[in-house]
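Chapter summary example.
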Amino acid sequence: MSAAQNGPQPGLIVVDKPQGITSHGVVARMRRICGTRKVGHGGTLDPMATGVLIVAVGKATKLLTYVSGLDKSYAATIRLGQSTVTDDAEGDTTATADASAVPEAAIRAALAAMTGEIDQVPSAVSAVKIDGQRAYKLVRDGEAVELKPRRVTIAAIEILAIRREGAFTDVDVDVSCSSGTYIRAIARDLGTALEVGGHLTALRRTRIGGFGLDTAAALETLAECSDAGEPLGALTMGEAAARLMPTRTATPAEAKSLSYGKPLAAVGIAGRYAVLDEAGELLAVLLESGDTAKPETVFVAAN
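The structure predicted for these 303 residues follows.
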C-alpha cells in the first residue's frame, strides 16, 4: 500500500537534495511520494547545490516558520581565477585571471577576515527582492542590480584543501554560518580580495540546526519506501519540535486549555518553546511574558 493510500502522517522529513533540481522541484516530488499537496520546505537550495533540505508534510508545514532562522553548515569548493555572473558554476564567465600562484597565507588571511559578524552583499542572482521583483529575474532581463549589504554571522570557515588546477586554485572549505548567508558571496568576495576573481563550483549543505546529513534520505529511497508501503522515516511533530526548541510537557488539564488557545502559567523558559502532551504529541508553541505563557501557534485544536 502506498503512502497516498495510507494517508500522509504530519512531520518533517530531511531530504538529501540531488543536484540539478530546484527546492520547489523537490517539493513537487515529495507531494507525489507522500500523496498530499500539503508539503513545504525550509531553506532554499540552488539547483547546483545538494544536501540537507527540510521538507514538512501536512500540518507540520507550520513548523517551517521555526526552521527558517536556524544556523547552517556547508561544504563548498571555491575556484579562484574565474568570475561568473551568478558567482557559481551555472553562470557565464565574466573574467579570468592567473590564480596559480596565489599564496596559501593570503587565502587563509582573506577567509579569516570574513568570519564573525560581517556585512555581506548578497549575490546579484539571488532571491532578494528589489521593488517587488526578485534580483535574479532583473539580472536575467539584462538589468544592473545593486544590492544592499546584510548583517550575517559566519562562525567559522575551515580550509580543508587547497588544490592547484592549471591557472586556477581550488579551495575546499567547511562553512558554519547564520541563516541568510550566501556561500556564493564568500567565493566572490574571496576572489575580489585576492584580485583574481572567484566563484563557487560545488556546494553541499551538511546541516540545518539540529538536522544533518546523518538523518537525510535520497528522493529515490523515499519513493521506493512509498511504493513498498514502508515508513518514510519522518520525524513526528513532537520529535521535530524537540530538535527546534526547548520543550515542556503539559498536564491533561493544560493540554485541554491549549486546545482552546488559552494561555498557561509561565514556568521560566526563555524564548519560544514547544509544549507536548504526555504521549509526546506537539500541542503548541508558546512564548512567555511575565507570569503568562501565551500560545504562538496551536497544533491540536479542541474537537
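To summarize the output: The mean pLDDT is 92.
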